[in-house]
């Protein structure tokens, strides 16, 4: 697995490194550094070049410094911004001195302001020229999901919560919750939104390591069928259900959500929509329409956006192929064609920043283990991915939407949301 | 006012009534009745014709009967469905025996099912051929709003809640609330969603009789500027603020929301969006963008739809010219272009059905007074409008959305919605 990852070209030959690194920056180099700073919206950072010289933030002092350890790293950033930065940070030719999350927040913020001034045409061009991941066809999805989720359960065990292996936004009903408590609170929040009753049948699209399904079965006495196309996750989920004595209540199925069959009282999908691709939202809606009982309740939980935007090119290329976080408008493609009625949308953006902070802290503690499983480049890439995600939620470029919906004709709906609050102390 | 209303043609001459009513239905008439029943999706109702003969619901017995008192009423319904029914019910040539709300639910339900089978082209044609009300330009809005809201405060006093004259969806935090309690709970719910703090400045777009502004000033110690283009409402609101000693905290301004100026901590609009017209949602968003402080909170409360659909032609013609209830997708035109972040959307559909039930009960109690202010035709038209609205919310053809949003960069947002619950007993 690790070697497959390394084989992806982080383009710089050994000779290049040798020659370019030793070169003193030319006046053209320095002009281009200034240009890059301008394009990036003049972020409050210092830039250190490969000879040790600095391009200092003019309204300084800056709190963070980006160091280009060789010229080619600089040119890669100039050439293909996000991918250049991501890849060269990963291979160590870019270093950030200071606080990586804060640095990324500063970059995103100034980039956002610069983008506001960028013409619509330029943005469109950027989106059109993006090299595409595999489409989320049945086969494409399998390949895209395998890339990320089949890295080995052992790897994820190092930094996710220890109870339920939830790789989605937690719910910090109280700010001092541990990640274990916050993930339990998230599952509880979802169950309450769905008004689960003992004996009901639930179908889950995209179940990760199956924690939510087991939580529902254990705490609400429901029967759950959970679909997932990640082989490693399904194997883990089945084992855990066995150990916890829930095998007769929870069934994990290694199959695509498009192949869901049967009728259920509840449909739930937490953290799958990001991988569905917006061209498939209608299909997802028709799956819910096909499988939901007359007065059934449904919940979709997904990373989202305030305005449509592609995933960071680097994240899409190296971390999450085929991923796309939708706007609320785009999510309406799931519900509108089937005349579903949206009952509730909650934005949990800052909960995801907090969740990621917990993950990153554990990840950093376990860096040596990650290095022994993969290599230094992988360690740095995932540190960047987790840090960048914190920054994206903090500056508001990513959102987290929980949407509850039901059939338009269903009058058996909760009148208020009082039943969701408060979260119990026992979480 | 009343005479202006009467002057609108409810086309039937006296001679027509005399000749047609006495005519025995022909075989063509009977064939057309069957056709109408088929087009309407075969609703579970009996139809009584002008000679007393009945066309009985085939899967009967039906609980409700629609009586055509003359042939022309029948032909008007056949010709221009909603308008025909509304106008001829109003002038008394159509009578509904049984329960009017239940009857309308049955009609809407079967119509909805029939529409699902109707081709997209046919629906589009229906929408395109609709005669338009005045556009919601500055002048057009004034004329449209005058038509409905300037019927005289005395009229609305007869059937709205007696405390705050709220002509928008109430919030039945408990099912046994009186309409006065439920309207207070609605205002409290809105204030909590907006996290009002003493000393803050609030701008309100569309304030009705000003009840919410006074509630906010009295209970939260904020300063409110409220805009409204209905002259009668503004006069009433100002008098009430004076009487309640709130004149230095609340300012009512007779002007269009597009002319709002200044900067405010909070933007609120309850029940105005229905009259804004979807071509103006971006304008509304830019007004919020212009007037909202850096970390300000905003709330828009509006009747809505699950899928795009024009307002009932009769409601639009006789009751609410220029009105349009948006889908969530369409509401995104308010927030997306300005990079606002949606924090919360709540659907209060069944609360509006309940609110309307309270209004209709009081309206029916005061029928004689309404008749003396206007005439029988007006009494029947408004009975139909209130009953039809109950039915529309009950069958799910109308929704009620409360949307909270803020700037995308604002991190000073509530982490949970626990502060909204429970509603105090003192309401």
Mean pLDDT score of chain A: 91
What structural class do helix, strand and pairing data of chain A support?
A: alpha/beta
Beta-strand segment tally of chain A: 11
CATH topology of the largest domain in chain A: Rossmann fold
Assembly classification: homodimer
Proportion of residues in helical segments of chain A: 40-55%
Order of helices and strands of chain A: HHHEEEHHEHHHHHEHEHEEHEHHEHHHE
CATH architectural label of the largest domain in chain A:
3-Layer(aba) Sandwich
Query: What is the CATH superfamily classification of the largest domain in chain A?
Result: Vaccinia Virus protein VP39
Beta-strand proportion of chain A = 15-25%
Q: What is the number of helices of chain A?
A: 18
Tell me the distance between the termini of chain A: 37 Å
Number of domains of chain A: 2
Strand arrangement in the largest pleated sheet of chain A: 7-6-5-8-9-11-10
Tell me, briefly, the overall form of chain A.
elongated
Q: Low-confidence runs of chain A (pLDDT<50, min 5 residues)? A: 1-21
Describe this structure in words.
Two copies of one chain form a homodimer. The longest helix of chain A is centred in the last third of the chain and has 20 residues, at 376-395. In chain A, the strands form two sheets. A seven-stranded mixed β-sheet of chain A has the order 7-6-5-8-9-11-10. In chain A, strands 2-1-3-4 form a four-stranded mixed β-sheet. Chain A is α/β, with parallel strands linked by helices. The first copy, chain A, is elongated and about 70 Å long. Helices cover 46% and strands 16% of the residues of chain A. In chain A, strand 1 (45-48) and strand 2 (54-55) form a beta hairpin. The first copy, chain A, has 18 helices and eleven strands. In chain A, helix 4 (71-79) runs antiparallel to helix 5. Mean pLDDT of chain A is 91; it is low at 1-21. Chain A starts with a helix and ends in a 20-residue tail after the last strand. Chain A has two domains: 2-120, Nonspecific Lipid-transfer Protein, Chain A; 138-420, Vaccinia Virus protein VP39 (Rossmann fold). Chains A and B meet through helix 15, strand 10 and helix 16 of A and helix 15, strand 10 and helix 16 of B. Strand 10 of chain A pairs antiparallel with strand 10 (340-347) of chain B, so a sheet runs across the interface.
